[in-house]
């Protein structure tokens, strides 16, 4: 996820509009930022770091004046944060500057082709192919608009792209599966990934659709389709509180991040599923050879994802185990050169996980970071890195990153485990849509209202749903400050059943209609018989509803995918209970987003 902004007009200072806009978009990425101003010359300024680093770099520079410009704040996917990888990117002759949000799936093929034609690349990004393609088309005699369209036609994947040309006062833009909104002002026009970027200047907007192009000039905006035919657009007036910048209209970042999951999951899968073969392709792990057991090390929510990952590998006959990173010590755990040790860490900076990875590496193991942050410590220090591509997560409680960890670990298990992955691939591909269905139809708010005063909350599940039970309880504890506990459903009768009363709702994860569902229903009956309210999270395939006081319905999925889909209901219940209790949802007491002490 990155943020883009553009402005054309002479009512405001272009550089100021771009920098203000980038600050409003920093929630979408903040590892580097840049702007391009098109005058008689094309001037590009970019810096690694937050927008403030770019602002400091521009102090005293001659950037003011000029009627058109674009800007970008980056969350790395291809190439680590650096000045060179920051956007905008230009062609070799500095005639065009481009900003992009999304992933270009066929960039390697295009890059190879351009390199063979003599083009020199200066960054490791997928985006840089675009200005070079445009440059080639300009060389071939096409005008800027046609050159832009031809370049966009060549790329596959997701994009919101904007380009400015030397000596021109027009912004060209295109959209496919990445957000892009145009702002219609009295003193100029705007484009951005999201409304907060320009809401202080105008509240009139045009939402671009997939496959549409825009030509934005001071005199007006023209939107066209792929064939170049003009599309009729409607201008909407939005209500927006500038204070809400970054939350896109949601009350909390956590809520927004829960609702972003269909998008972040699609981003995680993009370019990694071979639809024809029914296979997973993880190009970044092409030289990963797993010869022995696999150990996972992780903390908190990431540990729950690690438990899920180890279950996936065990199912494929690979000896795998998940360790709490703080409990992992190479002198106690047998680890050697034939081991792969996987650090699952959203931030890539958690001290406990880093220590465990370093110990494993010192013992000769191969190491792999499964992380959200490109060039984080884990990504840099491990032998391999697999990015979950969830985009920045601002809420302290992990939500969308857990879902993306689950999906990335499923992909990893297919690659390491080999064999026929068709069913898993099918399940994975449908996860974003099924999560969307849950978000659209969930009755979690009513369930939360029913049990907001409960003494404690219990969560039970088996197999792939066991880590989800643990995660459901962790979310509830973190943001409601109330007691919650997750159990393997079969363990309940070995002690925890003593805690169960009519004031302790039990959330039971029951998906499918097989042996696992049947046994969990047995455990549901045990709590029901003791008077505890039961909330079944179910796809309706079994008869668990008969024993439940409330049902949180999820669409039917494959067993692997069901764990990701069902978890969303628990995120929503925790969110609404915390909301009703008036808790500090995005910054719960005593907690920090990244824990860099052991
Ligand atoms: C819970 C949560 C924490 C983190 C844990 C590990 O919502 O966010 O439990 O999962 O601190 O953090 P990472 O994944 O950054 O290593």
β-strand amount: 15-25%
Helix fraction bin: 25-40%
Distance from first to last alpha carbon: 30 Å
- Structural class of the helices, strands and pairings? alpha/beta
Backbone shape: globular
Strands side by side in the biggest sheet: 3-2-4-1-10-9-11-14
Overall pLDDT score: 94
pLDDT below 50 for ≥5 consecutive residues: which ranges? Answer: none
Number of helices: 16
Q: What is the CA-based Rg, rounded? A: 25 Å
Folded structure, characterized:
With 598 residues, the protein is of the alpha/beta class. 33% of the residues lie in helices and 22% in strands. The chain is built from 16 helices and 26 strands. It has an eight-stranded antiparallel beta sheet, with helices on one face. The protein has a six-stranded antiparallel beta sheet with strand order 5-6-7-8-12-13. Helix 4 crosses helix 5, helix 8 packs parallel to helix 11 (400-417) and helix 8 runs antiparallel to helix 14. The model has no long low-confidence stretch (mean pLDDT 94).
Summarize the structure.
With 598 residues, this protein is α/β, with parallel strands linked by helices.
List descriptors.
single chain, 598 residues, alpha/beta, 8-stranded antiparallel β-sheet, 33% helix, 22% strand, globular, binds fructose -6-phosphate
